[in-house]
Amino acid sequence: KNEVEQSPQNLTAQEGEFITINCSYSVGISALHWLQQHPGGGIVSLFMLSSGKKKHGRLIATINIQEKHSSLHITASHPRDSAVYICAPNFGNEKLTFGTGTRLTIIP
Amino acid sequence: NAGVTQNPKFQVLKTGQSMTLQCAQDMNHNSMYWYRQDPGMGLRLIYYSASEGTTDKGEVPNGYNVSRLNKREFSLRLESAAPSQTSVYFCASRIQFSVIPGANVLTFGAGSRLTVL
Prior knowledge:
The complex is a heterodimer.
Chain A: E1 4-7, E2 10-14, E3 19-25, E4 31-37, E5 43-49, E6 52-56, E7 59-64, E8 69-74, E9 83-90, E10 102-107
Parallel strand pairs in A: 2-10
Antiparallel strand pairs in A: 1-3, 3-8, 4-5, 4-9, 6-7, 7-8, 9-10
Chain B: E1 4-7, E2 10-13, E3 19-25, E4 31-37, E5 44-49, E6 56-57, E7 64-68, E8 74-78, E9 87-94, E10 107-108, E11 112-116
Parallel strand pairs in B: 2-11
Antiparallel strand pairs in B: 1-3, 3-8, 4-5, 4-9, 5-6, 7-8, 9-10, 9-11
């Protein structure tokens, strides 16, 4: 069964802290997406990766295919980073499986 | 580029009424998707279309129909709405295969909040 688990479910941190959000999945995948859902509801794709590491600004995504695990890191966190972060592994077809998300709150 | 445009943004229906959610993208993407998002659950795929003229069922297709009218447009129809279909619906699209780094990420519409009474 294609399953995905994110941790933590909720995370509150002070501005400037280094943030890590984790995603584990059950079987082999072709790629994994990280998404950000804003408080207003809009969803934005952050990364799609199939190996290694990608960086965009203060965001870094890594994936370990052998361990079936991906992480999203945010450096120098800011209140505007407050959102729900969702991972979505692609188990080899068009049908992405979405995690339930990690709700991140950054306090000034 | 408008990206992915969904209409309507909000809709209230009575049980048994029908409606169509419209979705259009102007990015020349091959694949289009309809998802629903319910509290405490991840996005779930209702239907998708890998290319113009093809549609396939996703995880939760019951009670819905879709039409891939052309490459740009992918509509979702509720023939007889039920309270269980109260949800936020998202349309998304992507290029299925691209050699351009980052090109085949998903692009989402703003969402349509549907309430069925």
